[in-house]
Amino acid sequence: MAAFGGATSASASRLLIPSTKCRVSLSNSASLSSISSLKCLRQSPLLSHSFLHQKRSMVQVRSGNFSTVTSPKGLASDPDQLKSAREDIRELLKNLFCHPIMVRLGWHDAGTYNKNIEEWPQRGGANGSLRFEIEQKHAANAGLINAIKLLQPIKDKYPGVTYADLFQLASATAVEEAGGPKIPMKYGRVDVSGPDQCPEEGRLPDAGPPSPASHLRDVFYRMGLNDKEIVALSGAHTLGRSRPERSGWGKPETKYTKDGPGAPGGQSWTAQWLKFDNSYFKDIKERRDEDLLVLPTDAALFEDPSFKVYAEKYAEDQEAFSKDYAEAHAKLSNLGAKFDPPEGFSLDDAPTTAAPEKFSADKYSSKKRELSDTMKQKIRAEYEGLGGSPDKPLQSNYFLNIIIVIAVLAVLTYLFGN
Predict the structure, then answer these.
(1) Mean pLDDT of all residues in the chain?
(2) 238-265: string of b/e by CB count within 10 Å (b at 16+)?
(3) Can you give the pTM of this predicted structure?
(4) Catalytic residue at 49?
(5) Segment 176-209, tens digit of pLDDT
(6) Rounded mean pLDDT of 34-60?
(7) What is the pLDDT of residues 59-108, one digit of tens each?
(8) Three-state helix/strand/coil letters over 214-264
């Protein structure tokens, strides 16, 4: 089987947000110009209360062509941003027919895992390390920079998503959008921080080793996968083409690839190389068409006695193949990953952002005295001016802006009044 299937690298960094000790409150003053309005800037819990109702605080750090953000507490990736990123990936697949390279990208980021190494990230696996140039230059990763370049605008748009999650999301979505099974994915993968944490070259499978079956076992057993999973994952070659300028295998073009879709050229394993089904096993078994690719590692699936049991089964039973493939893909995508939260989360039952509380001016008093009707009306006017109402809660960050504006006005009024 062939090896699984851009921006310059830069080390990522994090910025810490200093905790604010400034607090703001609105007192029961008759006028915003009163001295008590100025004193309350330090004394009441309003500003800290408002911050507690913020969805999150994120800082984006630009580093080369990549960005890193502080993550929501307890989650490596933002579930809402992941869902939105998935929709953008679907649109990308629809327009550019880049399903195969997205599958390969996810596989190659995860496929460096070594079960014999416990420490993260030394053990490799799905950790986003493939975004760094040093790993992109590994021979098995030739051409994958094109996939990363396609995904980079989505990463920039959704900075709360880790590269590790984005790569695996793109891979699973590509399979599903090509007609394949739904992959039982989970998310929350933590990214490595720099190129010094990339795995060494040589952990991914080769297309034409001297002993193909033994080579496949050496590579996949190191990851903790078995013969059934090796054969099932090999079936993903139903998607895509091999380009000789990248892998050294295949024809420059065939009757199936000369007109695209997408960039023309290369040699595919199946006639309909953008459709996910069990055609790969049927075509490898029959070998009736010279325009379809058969690598030494492909042929080994029907030559090795243990592999052949599963290859024959999948050639006859597409449903069995789809089921086993989905399970194997999900397992591969989790290899070596460090999850936050530790159990990960599914987009189907991901935690959603709680709805903002309905407006109540009384909640924002210091509790020492009731807010005056005049002050409540002023807060209400600002609140409704930005679209809020008792039945339409306003996002907390807008309310914070209101408080800041009122506080600034209070200070200026006091200063000019004197």
Answers:
(1) 81
(2) bbbbbbeebbebbbebbebbeeeebeeb
(3) 0.69
(4) no
(5) 999 999 999 999 999 999 999 999 999 999 888 8
(6) 37
(7) 343 333 444 444 445 589 999 999 999 999 999 999 999 999 999 999 99
(8) HHHHHHHHHHCCCHHHHHHHHHHHHCCEECHHHHCCCCCCCCCCCCCCCCC
The answer to whether 221 touches 264, Cβ cutoff 8 Å, is: no
Catalytic one of 99, 108, 138, 329: 108
Each residue's pLDDT tens digit, 121-180? 999 999 999 999 999 999 999 999 999 999 999 999 999 999 999 999 999 999 999 999
Spell out the SS3 assignment of the chain: CCCCCCCCCCCCCCCCCCCCCCCCCCCCCCCCCCHHHHHHHHHCCHHHHHHHCCCCCCCEEEECCEEEECCCCCCCCCHHHHHHHHHHHHHHHHHHCCHHHHHHHHHHHHCCCCCCCCCCCCCCCCCCHHHCHHHHCCHHHCCHHHHHHHHHHHHHHCCCCCHHHHHHHHHHHHHHHCCCCCCCCCECECCCCCHHHCCCCCCCCCCCCCCHHHHHHHHHHHHCCCHHHHHHHHHHHHCCEECHHHHCCCCCCCCCCCCCCCCCCCEECCCCCCCCCCHHHHHHHHCCCCCCCCCHHHHHHHHCHHHHHHHHHHHHCHHHHHHHHHHHHHHHHHCCCCECCCCCECCCCCCCCCCCCCCCHHHHCCCCCCCCHHHHHHHHHHHHHCCCECCECCCHHHHHHHHHHHHHHHHHHHHHHC
Q: Tokens 């953000």: give the residue.
A: 69
